[in-house]
Every structure is written in structure tokens, then in C-alpha cells.
Amino acid sequence: MRNLLSIDHLDKDIISSLLVKAGELTKNIDVSLDNKQYIANLFYENSTRTRVSFEVAANQLGMKVINFDALSSSEQKGEEILDTLKTLHAMGIHCFVVRHSKEGLVRELSNELKTAAFINAGDGTACHPTQTLTDLFTILQEKSLSSKLRVVILGDIKHSRVANSLISGLSMMGINDICLSAPSVFMPENTSGLQVEENINKALDGADVIVTLRVQKERIKSTLDNMFAEYSKLYCLDENKLAKAKSDVIVMHPGPMNRGIEIASSVADGKHSVILKQVRNSIFVRMAVLKYVFS
Ligand code: CP
Q: Span 21-43, mean pLDDT?
């Protein structure tokens, strides 16, 4: 069994083979696991897409899924997360899909419980590797993963594990024309090797792919609350701004969306949007990830 802890733990060949496998799974090729297994979803932060798509993906492969509910578990009586995992592992659960607000926790747990496999479903602002694989697969389907692509990442990049992982994933696949556009308050400290353009209209010029990111209210100091109206005035991706990009641009968003803040409904639901394709693709990508982990 193998872990999937971050994009940086993978390499270009592994990413490529996961994307090929996801493509085969869209055609119903190799849709099963020889060894029927349990996985447990442990989500200590809210989730719709990641948790449900892992459940659907595992079910499609004939696996059994336990949706662990931390709020009704013995962790409420003081049990530590590692003891919870050891308890579930002793019951025969060998793979844990974990989302947690603490950066690096999934890696720490995998070091403590080496006989189980761990999939990082998002840790703090650090990583979201299966979202990145989903995004790369969607770009591959829509555009191909060409080094000529211009990818513009918009929004709350600083607090986004999606952006962190995606920037690594794009670079590993040879896509280096990556432009970050956000007000300084949403810009990460380390932008080395990346283009930074605060002016969104300039950033979008010639874009092939636009990745819009959610403004992460839960990770932002309450003193910044009153900036959302100003932010949406300048940065909300609407049809006027979209017109700066190439005519065949695709618009992505990992979800959940704040309509009217980072993306206008006319764009989210418009002809350039591949947002629901990303959701659909996430099933095939997570099936490929489960096959990788159990191989
Ligand atoms: N993209 C993403 O991780 O969505 P959820 O928070 O709904 O899982």
C-alpha cells in the first residue's frame, strides 16, 4: 500500500500514469480492485466535493466506505486522533482519507501508523493533492498539458492549499507560464518563479486557463471582513474581465464558490466554465488514486 500525501511526493511519471488511469476509468476500463477493502473518510473540516467523491469513487471500485463522524466519536471524550486511527485500523480499515486544519498532520499520522495508507484530502493551507490531480486531468481533457499554456490563478491564493498544490503540479508537468493575480493581502509570501500581476485585466490577457479561488473567510482575520465588497468590485471574474482572456479560455474553480465575490454567476454558469466537469472528473481521478494506493 502507498500514501498520497502531497503533489511534491509524486513525480511527473506517477502523475502522468494517474491521469492515464483516470482517462481509462472514464471509459469503464479496469473498474475494480482485486482486493475488496475498507477505507475511512475522516474529515475534520467541512467538505462536500472531496468527501462525497471519495465515497462514490470507492463504491465504484467495490470498496466499503466508513464515513467517520468526529463530532459523535470518542474524540469528544478526549481520545487523540492517532488512537482513533489505531482503533479503526485494528478493525480492519487500512486506508484513511483525512482532511484537517493542521498543516502536515496527515504526514505525521502516516509516520506514526506505517501499516496503514493515508490520502491527504486537504491539510490547512498546505496541500490538496487530489484536487490538483483533478485540475490537471481537466486541463488535459480540455486543452492538453502543453508548456505553451498560460494559466492565471485568481483570488485568495495566500490561504489556498488548492493553489499551493496546483502550482507544484503545473510546474512538474512543464507548465511554467503561471500568473498570480490578487490584492497583496491575498498574495503568498513566496512567489519565486511565478509572475505576479495585481492588475487583473493585465493578468488575464492571453489566458488559456483561469483558476478562480474561493475567498477563504474562515482563514481570514475578522478585521479584513469589510474588504469583501471592495475585493469583488476589483477582482470578481465577470464577463468584462473574461473578455481579456483568449476566446477559448476555460474557467475553473475547485468549489465551493462564493458567487458574486470571486466569480459572477454568468461566468460560473457560462460557456467557458468547466467547474462541473472538474467535479465529475474528480470521481475518476480519485478512483485512480485509490487503485494507486492499494497497488
Ligand atoms: N474542492 C474542495 O475541496 O471542495 P470541498 O471542500 O467541498 O471538499
A: 89
